[in-house]
Each structure stands twice: as structure tokens, then as C-alpha cells.
Amino acid sequence: MKRKPLLSRPFEGLAWLVAILCVAGVVHLVTILILPHIAPHSAYARIAAQTPTGKLILLPAIGPGHEMLPYEDPAVALAACTFDLTRGPARLRGQLAADALMMLSFHAQYGQTFYAMTDRSALRGRIEVVIATRAQLDDIEANDAEDELPQELRLEAPARQGFILLRALAERPSLMDEARGRLSSLTCENARTDGSGRALVGILGAQRTLALARD
């Protein structure tokens, strides 16, 4: 059997590498092209169709054939709020009930989760979160008072549009209305701005910063 020249082996490896890169490039291009067709069916699109931007709403109860979001537990009450940071930073706040499980997740427009927390993160039973761009966070931090301790969680969003998903556990079916009531007691809104998407001085106060850098 005739052996291949040794010099041909590196070229075979190079050919395979080029082929793999070409296939990866095609897959990436196809993904970009089909994304606008997938987006209308995304979680963000379904939630945005139910509520105005910057307003917290309770999602319909989960039942067979009535799941707005996949893989959700029927024992959990759901609420959501969409945000658009071109209108200014978004703020979620409210008082949480003691010993009642609540879970919050923060998502960019196409679904990627950039932060998650539970009611255990509340400070003295109160939760206050601001979602903003890096530039908006810089404006807020520039006006922080040096002699005040931070009390607010600040998140840097990886995209200007996205949504917050809130879940409250109902330990028994008879407690579902109570769980939905805990969710509806929270508020979601856009902070005031100067009209250019920049937060006004002092509108958010001086609080704790936890900025999640964009990859």
C-alpha cells in the first residue's frame, strides 16, 4: 500500500480547519438571518404584548395549553415587567413578605439571564433594584453622596431592552391568590431622565452598586 508523503499530512489538517471555520461561519450567518423571525415568538415578545413598557403585570395562571412561558411550575405565580433603557434606567422596588419565597430573574431582550436573586437578598424586607446602561450608571454614581451608605442594587444590562420575571411560590393551591398579591405589591417603572436617557441628579439616591460588566 502506497503511503502518503509526510508533507501532505499538515495540509490535510489545514484543510479540515478551513472547512470547520467555513461551516461555523455559515451557521453564524444563518442564525443572524433567522433571528428576526424567531424574535416575535420569544419570551420578551410574548410578555411585551401583554404589558406596556415599565409596568409590572401579573401573568395568566399556568394551565394546560395556557403556558405563556415554557417549563413553569403551576404552583408558582408569575409577574413580569419589560424595560427599555433608551427611556432611562428601570427600577423595581417594593416590600417583601417574610418567609415567603420569591424569585427574580433579569433578562436581556433575547432571553439571556444576566442576574438572578431571591427574597433573601432583600434589605430589611425591602427590595430595590435599578437596571441601567453603563453610561447611566456612571451618571448615577457621579451624584452619589459620599457620606451615605448604599442600599440599592444596581445592575448593568447587556442590552437596552429586556424584561424582569418574578415568581412567588404558593405552597398550596388555596394560597395562589396570596402569592399573586405579593407580586402585585411591587412596582416597576422608568426613572426620570433629562430627555436623553440620562438619569437626573439625585433621582436614584446613593446606594449600593453591583454592575455586571458586559462580556
Textual characterization of the structure:
The chain folds into 2 domains: 8-41; 43-190, Immunoglobulin-like. The protein contains 4 helices and 9 strands. It has helices spanning 8-38, 43-48, 134-142, 176-184; strands at 57-58, 76-84, 90-95, 102-108, 113-118, 126-132, 153-156, 161-169, 187-190. It has a 5-stranded antiparallel sheet. Strands 7-6-3-9 form a 4-stranded mixed sheet. It is globular and about 65 Å long.
- The average pLDDT is 76
Q: What profile does the largest beta sheet have? A: 5 strands, antiparallel
| Helix-strand string | HHEEEEEEHEEHE
Low-confidence stretches: 30-40, 193-215
Secondary structure class reads alpha+beta
Give the fraction of residues assigned to helices: 25-40%
Categorize the overall geometry: globular
Name the assembly state: single chain
Beta-strand portion reads 25-35%
**How far from one another are the termini?**
53 Å
**Number of DSSP strands?**
9
The rounded Rg comes to 23 Å
Total separate domains:
2
CATH class of the largest domain: Mainly Beta
The side-by-side strand order for the widest beta sheet comes to 1-2-8-4-5
Number of alpha- plus pi-helical segments: 4
Query: Architecture of the largest domain, according to CATH?
Result: Sandwich
CATH topology name of the largest domain, in short, is Immunoglobulin-like
